[in-house]
Amino acid sequence: xxxxxxxxxxxSVRDFAQKEIEPIAARLDNEGAEIPMPVIRKMAELGxxxxxxxxxxxxxxxxxxxxxxxxxxxxxAWLSVGSVMTRMIITGSLLEANGTPEQQAxxxxxxxxxxxxxxxxxxxxxxxxxxxxVKTRATKKGSxxxxxxxxxxxxFANRAHVLTxxxxxxxxxxxxxxxxxxxVEKEPGDRFAPPxxxxxxxxxxxxxxxxxxxxxxxGYEVPAENLLGGVEGKGFYQLMSTYEIARVQTxxxxxxxxxxxxxxxxxxxxERTQFDRxxxxxxxxxxKLAHMATELEAARQLTRHAARAKDLGKRCxxxxxxxKAFAAEMAERVTSEALQVFGGYGYSREFPVQRYWRDARxxxxxxxxxxxQYDVIAKRLLxx
Length: 384
Fold this sequence. Notes:
Strand order of the largest sheet: 2-3-7-6
Distance between the termini: 31 Å
Radius of gyration: 21 Å
């Protein structure tokens, strides 16, 4: 059960999403356009970016479960909008857990307020699931680091003021111990800072509204005080510490997208007639809807269970991995079945169900593939 405060949060976010996001989502997705900045600014004003961070840093100090509720409701309207806050949650969590007092004081309040927008530059052409396999080099020269290398799948990179970037600071150390995280500050915009920092968008089949970029660092300089925590070689372990909250948030986003698909299928099944009666009266359709609703609720409860474990301060990589893996695969199945309920119309851009289906496919890939989740789950099970 949700508390009265959590129910109020849910209702408030749902109202915002229905008024501000749903009316524009289909058009912007069809156009391949980005989320309008006024929407992002309104999200910041409502406190969505600082939900789980301490009031000492400008946040709201809410629990992880409240964050999951917000992510679900925003993603129910449009996955991309629900995912904007993910950028701030990841960078903010890294800062709050690992940043120096100076880094926290300078950056966290601005991230919470939306004055600074963030993006994660972790993935490389040859380093995806192997998070420690990064090759981007950061060479210290006096009071600055000089970056050389490539990143890919950096979503929201053009609009971000801060790229939270994994780099190799010690080529001679074992790869897990030679990795650090740099807070790479830049001006937002599509040009980046050529020739030292360039970016090109990656065309995708779904997950519109926020472009993903390939980035190339060729001598881009970062102040040494932007080394997260101020000590080299801690990056891999810092990154691992954020995965629990990131995977809970991702599972919640999957639940939101699947809920939107189920809502659409329920409405359509009642309205669409064949053989002189609504298709909702046919057992095959009724059973589809029943299976969809059951899987969806199971994913929601797994997600909230993981969130509550995190809120209790427990290790929850097992619970978060289960929630993320199950919700990701559930979202793909539920959105596919919803499209099937629509028949031929489901394959048309006239109805949003095809957007839910295209967007849902990314869940099994980002924030740790399903294969990685199952490996995490198996390791924990076999520890006992």
